[in-house]
Design brief:
Layout (H helix, E strand, L loop, with lengths): L5 H16 L21 H16 L10 H16 L3 E9 L2 E10 L3 E11 L9 H21 L5 E8 L7 H9 L2 H5 L1 E7 L10 E2 L4 H14 L4 E2 L9 H6 L4 E5 L8 H7 L23 H19 L1
Parallel strand pairs: 3-4, 3-5, 5-8, 6-7
Antiparallel strand pairs: 1-2, 2-4, 6-8
Helix pairs in contact: 2-3, 2-4, 4-10, 7-10
Length: 314
């Protein structure tokens, strides 16, 4: 940022399907097809992506910042995974602070091109560190969700697009460039943009963007099913890649686990962790490494990413 319950869902769908097959529907009614449930996202796979991003940073001066070899290597890593999984990938180039930057756009074939569900995360770090929570966590989670789409052979009603933004840390440059490059007609085709910027904070909170009521409800209902109370996301308002989309009139939503704001006693009582301490004490620092991740928060939020992608694209 600049500056699993999935099994229960699968079971519920399975019960609905059995009822339909055994005549458990209303007499005379036409049975509705069962709604597909999102698969469980392997947190081990998400962490494996984070380990790769850490290795890339270590090999490239300790960071993955805009204009650096570490950023380009990060983009190449993500792109190779998506290409192998059957996505159509496009690299969009832009210039900021005299250096070349890149956005990566990955489209899943099929779905209604007039109704596009997008999930995005910024892939760049600050120059002071490898950026594993900020924002390897969001980048890795949407990458693994995209790969889960491929493994499932998912055929959503709406068109799915996953994006990794450059130069967010310089002022939301990459995503702003992308939105500015869209025609008015293509902007109108985006039914929702979901943003994931820091979702594995070591002293985590569970914050949900409250910009669009329908998207907010999708996330809140998911966490309610886990028995986790959420709070509206305020720390990152206007400070991440959802801002250009929101400014263009596109419905936005997302998740956040906290940056340098301090966890209150009430929040610690609700979520655990340590009150009086930042949600992420390594925010924008060299210690934002693979050791700076809470595995439980990363797991829950990664599953929530997939849940929203499936729910909103059907």
């Amino acid at each position: 940022m600049s500056f699993s319950v999935s099994g229960r869902a699968v079971a519920a769908v399975g019960v609905s399907a059995v009822m339909l097959l055994t005549g458990g529907s209303i007499a005379g009614a036409t049975p509705s097809p069962a709604v597909a449930a999102a698969p469980d996202i392997s947190v081990a796979n998400v962490k494996a992506h984070l380990a790769q991003l850490q290795s890339i940073a270590t090999a490239n001066g300790g960071n993955r910042a805009h204009g650096s070899a570490g950023y380009k290597a990060s983009l190449d890593y993500v792109k190779a995974k998506l290409d192998a999984a059957g996505f159509t990938t496009t690299v969009q180039q832009f210039t900021s602070s005299g250096r070349t930057g890149y956005n990566l756009v990955a489209d899943w074939p099929g779905g209604n091109a007039d109704q596009v569900v997008m999930a995005g995360s910024h892939l760049d770090s600050v120059s002071r560190g490898p950026g594993i929570n900020d924002n390897g966590s969001g980048s890795a989670a949407i990458l693994e969700t995209a790969l889960a789409v491929s493994r499932a052979g998912y055929h959503p009603t709406k068109h799915l697009r996953f994006t990794w933004w450059g130069a967010e840390e310089l002022g939301i440059v990459g995503s702003g460039h992308y939105v500015d490059s869209l025609s008015a007609a293509n902007r109108s085709k985006i039914s929702s943009y979901l943003n994931f910027d820091m979702i594995g904070s070591p002293n985590p909170g569970y914050f949900v963007y409250d910009d669009d009521p329908a998207i907010e409800k999708t996330f809140k209902d998911y966490f309610t099913g886990l028995g986790i109370a959420t709070e509206p996301e305020t720390e990152g308002d206007g400070r991440s890649d959802h801002a250009p989309f929101k400014d263009a009139g596109i419905p936005v939503g997302g998740l956040f686990s906290g940056a340098d704001y301090v966890k209150t006693a009430a929040q610690a009582a609700k979520w655990g962790g340590t009150s009086g301490k930042a949600f992420d004490a390594c925010y924008h620092s060299s210690c934002d490494t693979t050791s700076n991740i809470d595995g439980t928060a990363l797991d829950r939020n990664s599953d929530a990413v997939a849940h929203a992608v499936w729910e909103l694209s059907q």
